[in-house]
Write a structure and sequence with these properties.
The structure is a single chain. The protein is α+β, with helices and mostly antiparallel strands and 342 residues long. It folds into three domains: 124 residues, Roll (PH-domain like); 122 residues, Pleckstrin-homology domain (PH domain)/Phosphotyrosine-binding domain (PTB) (PH-domain like, Roll); 56 residues, no CATH class. Strand 3 and strand 4 form a beta hairpin.
Length: 342
C-alpha cells in the first residue's frame, strides 16, 4: 500500500500518463537502454526504451511514449535470463523474464539483440532489485528489529541522529512500556529499556499523521501509520505535556522536510548499487470497452499475465466432471473456476 502519494515502487502501471513517467521526489535514473522489445505486446516487433530508476523499471515505445509500462521493484519477485538462437532475427536473442509477485503473476519479456545491452540491463535490474529488497527499513515499519548493537543505536547510510529522548512510553499494550525515542532525518525509533529487541522503527514515509490527542493513558502522541498490513495508530507518551507537544512539532518539521526529497535507501556508486544494507467479471460490450479505461487496463493485464513459467504441465489425469483426460490443473485451480472465467 502506498503512502504519502508514493506509488512508483509498489504498483504496476500500463499506459500511464506521461507526467507519471517523470521522476518523483527521491527517485533518480540509474540507467537507460534503447532498442529493447517488450515481447508481451501484441506487436512484439516494436522497439522501445528502458529507464531503470532506484524505484522501478519503465519501458515505452520509441515512437509513442503513451505506450508504456511501469513496474515497481516492490512488485517484482525475481528475474530470469534466457539466451537462444533466433531464425526470425537472424541472430541470438537475449531475453529477461521479469516475474511479478502479485496474486496473478505477470511475466514481462524484455528482449535485446545486442549482448552488451542485455548484460548491462540484466546487471542493473538485478543489482537495484537486490539493493531495494535489503533496504526495506528505510521504507517500511519494522517491529522488533535489531536497532541497538553493543549499546549503540545503529545509524543507516545517509541517516543522521537528531535527538534521543529518555523516558518515552510505548502505549501499544494494556500496560505502557518505558524506553527511549530516537529521532532521525529518516525515521523515529522506539526501543524498550528492558529488551533492545522490543523496538519499533517507523519511517516518515509510512506516517499519515502525527498529533497529540487524548487516550486512556492521558495525552499521547498518536502516530497514524499506513502499513502494508493495514492502518493502525501507535501511541507514545512522555511528560510534561509541553515537552510531548514540542517533540511532536519537531518530528513533524523533520518529516515534512524529509518528504521534499525522500531517502529510499538505494544508493549508487559508479553506476552500480552500493553494498547491501543489513537487512467478479461483468460482461462488457465492444462499444463500452472502447470507452472504458478500466477495460483497457484489465485487457493489458490479461495480456501480460502468464503462469507458464511458474507451472510445469503435469501428466494427464481423468476428470470425472468432463468424462475425459485433461492436463493436471495448477494448484488452486478447478474446472468450475475455469468455466467461470469463460
Amino acid at each position: 500500500m502506498s503512502s504519502r502519494g508514493r506509488w512508483n515502487d509498489v504498483t504496476i502501471g500500463f499506459h500511464i500518463e506521461k507526467r507519471h513517467l517523470d521522476m518523483n521526489p527521491g527517485e533518480f535514473v540509474i540507467g537507460e537502454f534503447s532498442n529493447i522489445t517488450n515481447q508481451r505486446r501484441i506487436r512484439s516487433d516494436v522497439k522501445g526504451n528502458i529507464i531503470v530508476t532506484n524505484l522501478r523499471i519503465i519501458w515505452h515505445e520509441q515512437n509513442d511514449i503513451k505506450v508504456n509500462l511501469s513496474i515497481g521493484f516492490d512488485c517484482i519477485r525475481e528475474f530470469r535470463k534466457d539466451i537462444q538462437r533466433s531464425r526470425l532475427h537472424n541472430g541470438t536473442l537475449f531475453t529477461i523474464h521479469v516475474i511479478s509477485q502479485t496474486v496473478f503473476p505477470y511475466i514481462f519479456l524484455l528482449q535485446a539483440l545486442e549482448e552488451r545491452t542485455f548484460t548491462d540491463l540484466y546487471q542493473a535490474v538485478t543489482n537495484i532489485h537486490r539493493a531495494y529488497r535489503t533496504s526495506k527499513i528505510y521504507r517500511t515499519l519494522v517491529l522488533r528489529g535489531l536497532v541497538i548493537k553493543d549499546g549503540e543505536f545503529q545509524i543507516l547510510q545517509n541517516e543522521h541522529l537528531i535527538r534521543t529522548v529518555d523516558g518515552f512510553w510505548n502505549l501499544s499494550g494494556d500496560m505502557g512500556n518505558l524506553g527511549k525515542l530516537y529521532i532521525t532525518n529518516i525515521r523515529i525509533v522506539w526501543v524498550s529499556n528492558i529488551n533492545d529487541h522490543h523496538s519499533a522503527s517507523i519511517p516518515y514515509l509510512q506516517i499519515k499523521r502525527l498529533i497529540v490527542r487524548n487516550s486512556k493513558f492521558g495525552s499521547a502522541m498518536a502516530v497514524d501509520i499506513n502499513w502494508s498490513r493495514g492502518n493502525f495508530v501507535y501511541g507514545f507518551q512522555t511528560s510534561p505535556l509541553e515537552e510531548l507537544k514540542k517533540i511532536t512539532d519537531e518530528i513533524n518539521i523533520l518529516m515534512n522536510a524529509y518528504l521534499v526529497n525522500p531517502i529510499y535507501g538505494i544508493f549508487v556508486e559508479g553506476g552500480l548499487c552500493a553494498e547491501e544494507h543489513n537487512e467478479v467479471i461483468e460482461s462488457t460490450s465492444e462499444e463500452d470497452a472502447e470507452n472504458d479505461p478500466t477495460f483497457e487496463q484489465a485487457a493489458l493485464e490479461e495480456c501480460y499475465w502468464d503462469n507458464k513459467l511458474l507451472h510445469e504441465p503435469g501428466p494427464p489425469t481423468y476428470s470425472h466432471e468432463l468424462g475425459l483426460a485433461i492436463e493436471t490443473l495448477p494448484k488452486g485451480k478447478t474446472i468450475q473456476s475455469l468455466w467461470n472465467v469463460l
